[in-house]
């Protein structure tokens, strides 16, 4: 991986990340393709219509179905899905958190039962590396111990101790495999934990950033804490992260969250929000959220967002989208998903331009003014 800081505007950064499959301009939002597919879209939509340079796939889900060995036989993620730009794969740690009724973290890994057939499985730091080697992702995440907030001090302390121990095991195993010729074009990121406790975040960041990782993520946020707590935690944590490597905030979030955390030095984001909200009728616009199922849109000839240049807004009216949603037409899901993802990706492009021109403060102010108006 090649990483370069192109410009800064106070703490906001515009960077370039080069992997074996694509050049990624940051700040970047990564659409979530949990099962190797972004719901309602095909890869032509993602590559050509949206122009995404990196998407996220899920290690836990791809391991269970169709199986990482099957994916490897079919050309790994790039050949299997025909998305020939970059993939990031998460580690399965979040699934242990989100599927806590069927999973249990232990000292040496995470035990869980498949949500598909109930079969028992055990993820260790090394097993997660093996799975992601088979998937062939450009960026893989280490196994971490994620806890919901609020949590006791004892549980957060245990979380960061496990996360650091698993990270050490992961990076040693990953580099050993690279020396033997496996995963030589892949990169690996560590995940900083610690809840909203600043001393724990500092401890976790310092311990992990001493290790030979290609980049670093902040995990364990947007899991129940207040927004201001999240922002304060990110601002505190980034000061202990190396400037010369990518910074990734996992699972966040709203357009406001992205704008605020770019301001705090974050380069990479992912979240299911734009795709999931699209399917549920909530569309993102330059002036805020719009619920397309409302009766007021039944005869509205205007596009979702008059400022938007996406395929949906250039061709279709709110009235037509309202009709499709109410009729549960499959076409709705594609058009709405295209719009929401275009909005997110374009917001990142505009943020980058503002950083390159050293006017991020003005850009952020204008972003909020449109919403207030």
Automatic annotation (TrEMBL):
Lineage: Bacteria, Pseudomonadati, Campylobacterota, Epsilonproteobacteria, Campylobacterales
Domain tRNA-guanine(15) transglycosylase-like residues, every copy: 11-372
Residues that, per the record, bind substrate: 90-94, 144, 193, 220
Organism: Sulfurimonas hongkongensis
Identification of the protein by name: Queuine tRNA-ribosyltransferase
Top-rank taxon, per record: Bacteria
Cofactor binding annotation: Binds 1 zinc ion per subunit.
Listed GO CC annotations: cytosol
Keywords assigned by UniProt, alphabetized: Glycosyltransferase, Metal-binding, Queuosine biosynthesis, Transferase, tRNA processing, Zinc
HAMAP family per UniProt: Q_tRNA_Tgt (MF_00168)
Catalysed reaction equations from the record: 7-aminomethyl-7-carbaguanine + guanosine(34) in tRNA = 7-aminomethyl-7-carbaguanosine(34) in tRNA + guanine
UniProt keyword Zinc present: yes
First-tier enzyme category under EC: transferase
NCBIfam families referenced in this protein's UniProt entry, alphabetically: Q_tRNA_tgt (TIGR00430), tgt_general (TIGR00449)
Quaternary assembly: Homodimer. Within each dimer, one monomer is responsible for RNA recognition and catalysis, while the other monomer binds to the replacement base PreQ1.
Function: Catalyzes the base-exchange of a guanine (G) residue with the queuine precursor 7-aminomethyl-7-deazaguanine (PreQ1) at position 34 (anticodon wobble position) in tRNAs with GU(N) anticodons (tRNA-Asp, -Asn, -His and -Tyr). Catalysis occurs through a double-displacement mechanism. The nucleophile active site attacks the C1' of nucleotide 34 to detach the guanine base from the RNA, forming a covalent enzyme-RNA intermediate. The proton acceptor active site deprotonates the incoming PreQ1, allowing a nucleophilic attack on the C1' of the ribose to form the product.
Cofactor(s) required, per the database record: Zn(2+)
Pfam families assigned: TGT
